[in-house]
Hints:
The structure is a single chain. With 101 residues, the chain is an alpha+beta fold. It has a domain at 8-67: 2-Layer Sandwich (Alpha-Beta Plaits), CATH 3.30.70. It has five helices and two strands, in the order ααββααα. It has a two-stranded antiparallel ribbon. It is globular.
Amino acid sequence: MNSMIKTAADVVSWRMCVGCGACEYICENRNISLHNITEQGIRPVLGDNCIGCGKCTSVCPGLNNTKHTAGVNHAIAELIPHCGFAVEVWEGYANDKFLRN
């Protein structure tokens, strides 16, 4: 883990956040809320009550991701049985509430 990343806000600033919301769920002080940032997607925003416990980063899949490179033919090997040949995974957000649900 990068020693410079201490909080969910650091994960966002390093562009490693995947928008899953695990940090909001694990924060016992309810100091993290999720916001839809137009150019980035759903991202955590920290309030003023962070005690630096590190629980938010301990559950972060973006920070704890060990799959930095693609496999054979640049495909993500773990996704082939489920999705077929996948090179990238993107997060999206529909403006239409009916479509989103």
